[in-house]
């Protein structure tokens, strides 16, 4: 199963069908996964997703990875890898993240990991 075009590279993501069927074991067949997705129960990054092949990305994992539940407090935050940090017009700083987001404006302390 190939992921749809989206925010992640093909080698850095899994289609939603594979994640729900093979990893989380929510359904036994492809048809059951499609039924789950079409009920609009799946939210990724706070948006409801109905694309059965939506590329669900995973960051910073090499080789095997595991899925685990997070609590409501942890769901309020998203860990992002900063691809570049620049100054735009009139000296307004902005950063670009690994998933295509651009964060503009006053940026607090950005910790840089090497």
Automatic annotation (TrEMBL):
Gene3D superfamilies: 2.40.50.740, RNA-binding S4 domain. InterPro entries: Ribosomal_eS4 (IPR000876), Ribosomal_eS4_central_region (IPR013845), Ribosomal_eS4_central_sf (IPR038237), S4_RNA-bd_sf (IPR036986). Pfam families: Ribosomal_S4e. It comes from the Eukaryota. The keyword Ribonucleoprotein applies. Keywords: Ribonucleoprotein, Ribosomal protein, RNA-binding, rRNA-binding. Residues 61-105 form the Small ribosomal subunit protein eS4 central region domain. PANTHER family: 30S/40S RIBOSOMAL PROTEIN S4, SMALL RIBOSOMAL SUBUNIT PROTEIN ES4. This is Small ribosomal subunit protein eS4 central region domain-containing protein.
């Amino acid at each position: 199963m190939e992921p749809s075009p989206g925010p992640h590279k093909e080698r850095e993501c899994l289609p939603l069908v594979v994640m729900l069927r093979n990893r989380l074991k929510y359904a036994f067949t492809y048809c059951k996964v499609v039924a789950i997705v079409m009920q609009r129960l799946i939210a990724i990054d706070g948006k409801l997703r109905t694309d059965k092949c939506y590329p669900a990305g995973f960051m910073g994992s090499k080789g095997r990875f595991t899925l685990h539940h997070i609590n409501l407090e942890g769901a309020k935050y998203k860990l992002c890898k900063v691809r570049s940090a620049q100054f735009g017009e009139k000296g307004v700083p902005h950063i670009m993240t690994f998933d295509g987001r651009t964060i503009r404006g006053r940026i607090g302390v950005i910790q840089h990991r090497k």
